[in-house]
Design a protein that fits this description.
FAD/NAD(P)-binding domain; six-stranded mixed beta sheet; seven-stranded mixed beta sheet; FAD-dep_Monooxygenase_BioMet; 2 domains; 19 strands; D-Amino Acid Oxidase, Chain A, domain 2
Amino acid sequence: MTDSMRAPIQRALVVGGGVAGPTVAMFLRRLGVRATVLEARSAAEGDAGAFLGLAPNGLQVLAELGLGAELRARGAVCEGLRFTNARGRCIGVIDHRGHARRFGAQMVMIRRAELHRALMAAAAERGADCRFGAKVVAIAERPGEVVARLEGGEELAADVLLGCDGLRSRVRALALPGSPAPAFTGLCDVGGFARCPGAPLEPGWTVMTFGRRAFFGAFAAPGGEVWWFHNNGAREAMQVVDPEQRRAAILALHAGDPGWIADVVRATPTLLGPWALHDIMTLPRWHAGRVCLLGDAAHATSPSAGQGASLALEDALVLARCLRDATSPQAAFAGFEQERRARVEAVVRQARKNGDGKAPAGPVAAWFRDRMLPLFLRAGAAAQARFYEHRVEWSTPTA
């Protein structure tokens, strides 16, 4: 029996063209399902994101789709992370160089826009109907189907509707009203891409700096470009309209920190953000009727665990597998939530814990942190290993 003969559905509406959306569409196409991906942004709009890490567990899903090599080529392998204090002294290291042997892949850093474009293109190549400028404004169920109404008035019907539309999910608001709102983590994020030849960064390595008043991370991409982000709790200062005022605020927050940080910020043509970082620790349920959430729409995590995109990729495979094996969409959604909830909520908790460690520390707390960080990193690396070694196999039947 082929996969397409086993699938209990024939049509799927997938809302969101980021990570989970086109990925679940590709797996559904493997089952012979007609998948339509609805992305609210126009194709010409730039992606507001900066960059992210694809962890080994996420890369395994991409390998199942035959996209692993292409996306590694579009990004850059991360050799590891070095942690420094406000004086520039290295206080801890997480080495990734053995991860390919240990976990089957090594983390890849990639621009978010590049990842989204590649996944949408791959989904279209495999027969998904990928539509841009398609904003869903209403959802209704009729006997045997679910209907989405677009902003222009067009109505589309399918057997299931999958909400892959991120932290501020419109699908969640429409189909699961009363769901808890995303929680502010206490941190704001600004980032950018710069060429700064004088920055003392080793290609392939990420440097994480606990500054006196803010946290700064920088990845030295091959070719000499620096990809960076800045975290702090000064929400109002980061949200000023004038980007040069925002740049000045970042520079002021890093006054007294290693000088290369200011050099990188000054060398950045365009600041990206700001983003107030939120997460969703738990939702009472992820599905209602013929509608199901996945990815950040169901369990948003802050970037501090480096798992958001990889969890979305895992979700896409698992949900498509559940739809393949279940007798009804509702049974598939229930099985998906049962299989995924404990894992993703553990990652959200770890990300929140990691983010708490980025808060500025006074002199005594910084002294303690600098001496205890290697111990904390060992514990963090153990949690990271549990996330990385997780595997979701397409060929494995669902329970």
